[in-house]
Design brief:
By secondary structure, the chain is of the alpha/beta class. It has one domain: TIM Barrel (Alpha-Beta Barrel), CATH 3.20.20.150. The chain is 38% helix and 15% strand. It contains 10 helices and 14 strands. The protein has a 6-stranded parallel beta sheet. The longest helix has 17 residues. The protein starts with 5 loop residues before the first strand and ends with a helix.
Length: 273
């Protein structure tokens, strides 16, 4: 399959401050064909990050500018939904419904980078099952994106394995960089959840990666120690759409945009060769 290789918004926070349209033109020039924004599905203005303008979009903003973005050659097929412990699942579900009905968005990704214990897990599982209930009548996917912390084990099961048991209708977006960061094997993890994988985040790490240099652990996809090639070999056996391959590089020790260009070129050469 020819993938419309995408870019997740988080790493692009350094560029989005220049304006959304200009940022989309930049990533199209780098070789990307799709973009996965971070979206607030609640009341306008919630869940914002004042340090990085334009990083988190209100759902109505995305509805209003999606056609303008398409004119740059960039498609939006999935969004990362930003939420917090006080988020109302009904309100979030209504925002998702609007995005589905008015912007055609079907893939909604959630991540809780602070989940670290069974109490967090219980709270999140309740929240996600309520979300699944709220959108049960529309054709959308509710997807979880684990970071390294969800691989912590309690009574022989990791938090992410337990969450998948507690939320049987939730799909997965494995991030092969965070899986590696956690000391796990991304190939084994993807094979384990083969039928639930909706899309994959490609992230690579330098050889010296670790928690003490977490923010400086990233490098261009294909350049580091993550088992990228072996994951690419799994793609034909997964039920991914043409938008299922996404780069998420959080930072760079060199030229960030050049890393992105090298990463998308690497993935294209491996998936189209």
């Amino acid at each position: 399959m020819k993938y419309k290789i995408g870019l997740n918004a988080y790493g692009l926070r350094f560029v989005l401050g220049n304006g959304i349209t200009e940022a989309m033109k930049t990533i199209r020039e780098l070789g990307f064909e799709s973009f996965e924004p971070m979206v607030n599905c609640e009341e306008a203005g919630k869940n914002q990050n004042p340090k990085y303008p334009n990083l988190i979009w209100d759902y109505q903003q995305l509805i209003d500018i999606k056609e303008e973005i398409r004119q740059t050659g960039i498609e939006i097929n999935s969004v990362h939904v930003v939420f917090n412990k006080e988020s109302d699942p009904y309100e979030v579900g209504q925002g998702m419904r609007k995005l589905y009905e008015e912007a055609g968005i079907r893939n909604f990704v959630f991540a809780d980078g602070s989940m670290s214990n069974p109490e967090d897990l219980q709270r999140d599982a309740f929240f996600f099952n309520r979300i699944l209930y709220e959108v049960d009548d529309i054709d959308v996917n509710v997807i979880y994106h684990p970071h390294e912390n969800e691989f912590a084990r309690f009574i022989n099961l990791s938090l992410i394995d337990t969450l998948m048991l507690m939320c049987p209708d939730m799909k997965l977006q494995p991030d092969i960089g965070w899986i590696t960061f956690a000391g796990e094997d991304p190939v084994e993890f993807i094979n384990k959840y083969q039928n639930r994988v909706n899309s994959i985040h490609f992230k690579d790490l330098i050889r010296e990666f670790g928690p003490e240099i977490r923010r400086n652990s990233f490098t261009a996809v294909g350049k580091g120690v993550v088992r990228t090639d072996e994951v690419i070999e799994l793609l034909p056996g997964l039920n991914l759409s043409e938008y299922g391959v996404i780069i998420c590089q959080d930072n760079s020790n060199e030229d960030y945009l050049e890393d992105l260009r090298n990463g998308v070129n690497y993935l294209r050469s491996k998936t189209e060769g």
